[in-house]
From TrEMBL:
Protein name: Peptide chain release factor subunit 1
GO molecular function terms noted in the UniProt entry: translation release factor activity, codon specific
Subunit structure: Heterodimer of two subunits, one of which binds GTP.
One CC-aspect GO term: cytoplasm
Length: 416
């Protein structure tokens, strides 16, 4: 099966982001001394340096000597990082975190992290100094997936736009020449009604054309189309076959909204929250359905670390399914007789001793790493697609609890 070459890397980047964010979230400063800076792509690095320099001199007024020193150290460290960049930050901007964090027993440790090119553009410059790092905006970016087409209309006006993640982008609007219900004197009632229907029909065609022009070229990346407006306008519009047939199949719902100007697009997204949440895990659901079907009816399924890893190495895995909530490391052991063995351990636990299962000799630790990165690295070499599966539905939970968070859909049966 052909896979999009960029897709595995995108998933991997997202995973790595999530990991760094979880790490940063756990850090605490003993005072208001952890600095976070969000830098949009169009912000000049020299402006940021200037801002940081100014904060550095203002920090001289901080009363607590320890906090003062820590804040200034953090700012110096940020300035050092900024030297690596030319005029502007990388595409989509970047975020820098720096500060002295509690490392237990009254000790502190200096931590600096830079996250470049987040999943969605950094929208505005933010300087934040607190006892925690500011991770919320990044977490929202990670939670946001999907591309949806938006249409709101009544008989007088219409707006179309995009929903990218959680961001609404109005694109085009149209207004109609549909006459009101009141006819002018001298016009026959019949003729008036006919003209009015014609005008409505023309307007629906115009709106559909606007939507088709915008959405059809993106239809393969589109996760759905939402339509909003008062009744019966939106129903007439959808029932009337105005939209391109491929878009019609992608309509995931119609919703009552009172406004059909730009603000109506936002109302539409609000009204569609439940449908959007379902949509988000639909793809995860269908992956798990396929996995269970293969497991029950044939042998084109694998699960657990050892079997999945062996299948991955053989190149027999079509899709690697990993639980989004899997937080484990794998320890690789070598025994004196050259047997390679693995143990999956909770990330917070110490590395266990290991006896070789084949020869019983005491094995030595070769390395310990994140189990997800370990498996994804093999998957990438073998052209296997990796899918992260949410635990927000029953079979997703089962993946984590019953299969150790690791499974695969095979290209062919391997007997492993
Ligand atoms: Zn051995």
């Amino acid at each position: 099966m052909a896979t999009d070459a960029d897709a595995p890397n995108e998933d991997r980047r997202k995973y790595e982001f999530r990991k760094v964010i979880e790490e940063l979230k756990d850090f605490e400063g003993s005072g208001t001394q952890l600095v976070t800076i969000y830098i949009p792509e169009d912000k000049q690095i020299s402006d940021v340096v200037q801002h940081v320099t100014q904060e550095h001199s203002e920090a001289a007024n901080i009363k607590s000597k320890q906090t003062r020193t820590n804040v200034q150290d953090a700012l110096t460290s940020i300035k050092d990082r900024l030297r690596y960049y030319d005029t502007f930050p990388p595409e989509k901007g970047m975020v820098i975190f720096s500060g002295a964090v509690d490392s237990g027993g009254g000790r502190t440790e200096m931590v600096t992290r830079t996250l470049e090119s987040p999943p969605q553009p950094v929208e505005s410059f933010r300087y934040h100094c607190d006892s925690n790092f500011l991770t919320d905006p990044l977490e929202h970016m990670l939670a946001d997936k999907g591309l949806f087409g938006l249409i709101v209309l009544d008989r007088r006006e219409a707006n179309v736009g995009w929903l990218r993640g959680k961001r609404v982008e109005p694109v085009k609007s149209a207004s109609s020449l549909v006459p009101g219900k009141q006819r002018k004197g001298g016009q026959s009632a019949q003729r008036f009604a006919r003209l009015r229907l014609e005008a409505i029909d023309n307007f629906y065609q115009e709106v559909a054309e606007m939507a088709n022009d915008l959405f059809v070229p993106e239809r393969h990346d589109l996760d759905g189309v939402l339509v909003g407006g008062p009744s019966p306008t939106k129903d007439e519009f959808l029932d009337g076959d105005y939209l391109h047939h491929e878009l019609r199949d992608q309509v995931i719902g119609k919703f009552d909204v009172s406004y059909t100007d730009e603000s109506g697009l936002y109302d539409l997204v609000d009204a569609a929250q439940d449908a959007l949440a379902d949509q988000e895990i639909m793809q995860d659901k269908s992956q798990m359905e396929e996995f269970f079907e293969n497991l029950h009816t044939g042998e084109e399924a694998t699960y657990g670390f050892d079997a999945t890893r062996r299948n991955l190495v053989m190149g027999s895995v079509d899709r690697l399914l990993l639980s989004e909530d899997l937080r484990s490391d794998v320890v690789v052991y070598d025994c004196p007789n050259d047997h390679e063995e693995f143990e999956v351990v909770d990330r917070r636990h110490a590395t266990p001793e290991h006896e070789c299962e084949e020869c019983g000799e005491k094995a030595e630790v070769r390395e310990r790493e994140d189990v997800i990165e370990h498996l994804m690295a093999i998957a990438e070499q073998r052209g296997t697609e990796t899918k992260f599966i949410s635990t927000d539905f029953e079979k997703g939970e089962q993946l984590l609890d019953a299969f150790g968070g690791i499974a695969g859909i095979l290209r062919y049966s391997t007997g492993v």
